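Hi, here's the filled form for the chain we discussed.

Project: internal
Contact: R.S.
Residues: 141
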Amino acid sequence: MPKTKRDSLTPWHRTRVRERSRGQCEAIIDVERPMTLPDGREGFVVTTDLVPLRCTRRATEIHHALPRSRGGTILDKFRRGIEHLLHLCKTHHDLAHSGRATGTTLMIVGRVLTDPLTREPVYTGPDETLRALYPDPAEET
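And the returned structure, exactly as it came back:
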């Protein structure tokens, strides 16, 4: 019998993620927008600018933006927030797991470990929201 992935999300997590997303994919994608800029000589030059917009597809899957391998499931045990979870369409969920999503809004950089003394999660990384929710006691001195 094949080994299946154990789901660490509770109905509490699922409900809150779906409420936040209102059923729309939460991926932020860059869309090219034409721009006309003065070129300093004859008038104007047409170029493109990248504008971040939210995907308009229907969300069907809940994704650990902080991967399970770096402590995403540790945060599932604590009901402080759902900041490490995204409601995505299948296309963006597949992209998130393709290895090409680093540096996008689909993946959170950093790691969560459990403090051996307090048994509380501790986040280390650049995400300010997770650092505020799960601070490292060593950095508070």
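Let me know if anything looks off before we file it.
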